[in-house]
Amino acid sequence: MKGITMINLKNDVNWKKVFGVINSVSTLTRNQTRPLRTEIVEMAIAKYSGGKLKYVGDSADGMDFEGSDGLRYECKMQGTIFQPTTPHSAKVILKNHYSTKKHDIKKTFDKMIFIDTKKRKVGVVDFEQLSIENKSADVKCWVKDQSVVDIVADGVTADKSYDGLNMEQVIFEAIQKSMK
Asked: Considering the entire predicted model, what is its pTM?
């Protein structure tokens, strides 16, 4: 890619700030609030990437970010993804539909960003390095060989500026105040 600088997710994203936001949304675990939690974290990644990742998850299908490097990025966050005692990662839901038929899987992103919230770890892989399981209710992905994962952050200590912030409380108080 001539004239385009590749994104260095290790240095270009402030993962301490992102994990601060992850802590602040940790109570958004109900089925109704999980998509909101994901959107808030993805917005934080965009904000703390210094403009390198543009959040498009609210309008684009099958990807969360457009990179300044011209690549498309998808992001998945889960309690445990990276497994130290097995060669493969844990399976992560890529698509979840209430359907009884299999889905057509198309390449809608170039890179997957995995966020392991328990280990405070972030890894990136190319779409082609993913294994995909296509069942009727959901589509899962994982990496068969974790050695191909580019670990960009590990054991991240959250930024203290988010200590004590409960995003769920902030959101629901704003909703209650706006009702007349």
From this structure: 0.91
